[in-house]
Amino acid sequence: MSNDRWMWDATATLEALGAADVALWVWEPEKDRLRLTGATRALGLGPLAPDCSSAALRALSLPQDRVLAEDILRVQPPGGEVAVRLRMRGAGVCIWRGVWLEEGVRAAGVVAPETKFAASDQDTLTGLLDRRSFIHRARERLQSPGPHELIVADLDRLRRLNEALGHERADLVLAALGSRLAAAFPPGALLARIGEDEFAALCAAESSPGPEALRRALEQPLRVAGFDIHPTLSIGAVEAEGGDEAPEAAELLRRAELAVEAARSHGRGGAAAYGRSLETDGLSRLALEGDLKGALKRGELAPFYQPIVRLSTGALSGFEALVRWRHPRRGLLMPEQFLPLCDEMGIMSEIGAMMMREAARQLAAWRRRHRAAGELSVSVNLSTGEIDRPDLVEDVLAIRRETDLPPGALKLEVTESDVMRDPDRAAVTLRNLRAAGAALALDDFGTGFSSLSYLTRLPFDTLKIDRYFVRTMATNEGSTKIVSSVVKLGQDLSMEVVAEGVENAGMARQLLALGCDYGQGFGYAPALSAQEAEVYLNESYVDGAAPLKARG
Predict the structure, then answer these.
(1) How remote is the C-alpha of 133 from its chain's centroid?
(2) What's the pLDDT score for residue 13?
(3) What average pLDDT score do residues 466-481 get?
(4) How far apart are CA 316 and CA 300, in angstroms?
(5) Long-range contacts formed by 534-540: CB under 8 A, 24+ apart
(6) What's the rounded Cα separation, in Å, for the pair 207 and 141?
(7) DSSP strand E in 347-438: where?
(8) What does pTM read for this prediction?
(9) Do the Cβ atoms of 410 and 352 come closer than 8 Å?
(10) Which domains does the chain have, with CATH numbers?
(11) Chain segment 344-372, per-residue pLDDT in tens
(12) Is residue 359 within 8 Å of residue 399, measured between CB atoms?
């Protein structure tokens, strides 16, 4: 009977190993012998092949890598893994990986350039661990007794970064954040990029810098391709006791990511710790999606109005219309609780059109009923991509005809990323909106995506300073400088400047000292229903100024 059993051809095997820049090794500690075959010369291992003693291996390793070499040579239990990095003379970093085959007898594996293993172990952009490897190593780390802290940081507005800068430049931001993460944590901490815009760190609780220290390290400004970027992160943290009763690593990571979602619901730059109450959010999200499908038609989504006040006199200047959901069972829901779902469902343009129409009608009603309200304006945010909606200009013209609002009474707020995605096209649309009688505001200015050359060519009336910079003026000198620069820029370009997030009289005085024109925020009032806003309007005109909290 013929023997069809296929056998390895030794020559072909060696040629394949050579072509792949991989060598095989077998270590026999009792014989003090390390045998190598394959691409030994290409890897800088030629002096060791075909076999050598442990002394030769130690001699050829660089001084700073001799401890790693000892790890390869130390006897381990059967099944124990060998996985260390070793830089040999004349070669780059190599990874030695293998397993102990028999009890105290021999180990075997492969050695190859570090890049051969990068896809299975590291995130190629940042050099940190990838998600799979992080979970694997965290599982081992959590076996150590004592408290551990896992921190997950999610970069806010990555999509806006990609739209404004392009993916390659946005990748530079992510790479820089990876480097800052590594610098912020002590040696030995497990660091990873676990998602497109998510980073994770696990270390002993006593040596952890903590969420806020991590924020300070990662949120420092950076400059990429001529753009000043001011990254902000939503951060979640969870602590766990290591040892036999330690939670599974993947479960711990899930808890930290739940905390990140909770932090994001508080607005950009939020932070939260894991708690049991977060567990219901997943089921809650599914139910909310079902309720949203008919909410717009039922009139449950409606504009609420936040006052905008002249800082120098306290006089009411206008309102910003912000969407709220009067949910029949859950009560009043904030935008961060449902707008991400609206975006996923593709109904943001419908919501934007409704907001613009209802806010204009309400302003027209106030102007008819209150003679003193004749100079008020109402601002409406255009959602991401809405500037490209084909019937946007026609809607503005129709609304102005219907409400008889004068030019400039209806103000549209546009984000920087929407403008910078296609500045030339945006310029045409903005000029058409201006011709249709809408005033124009550039929202969240100062977040670092705008090109000043384009700003001078676009027909904006107003710059709005992002609330993050206003909120952190008292504790961050850089935020004060950014606010001052935006105010000065607005003055030079003859634009009004509105600061968001004014929480108390101290902030208002600081903004006024910097020359800022207008402010809005909880210091004056939150977003109010139409009825509450009308009461506020009456009181402000009776008193001569809008009330302002002494402290936040």
Answers:
(1) 22
(2) 67
(3) 88
(4) 28
(5) 534/366, 536/307, 536/316, 537/316, 537/366, 537/370, 537/373, 537/376, 538/370, 540/307, 540/315, 540/316
(6) 14
(7) 377-381, 410-415
(8) 0.54
(9) no
(10) 8-111 (3.30.450.310), 129-273 (3.30.70.270), 299-541 (3.20.20.450)
(11) 788 888 999 999 999 999 999 998 888 77
(12) no
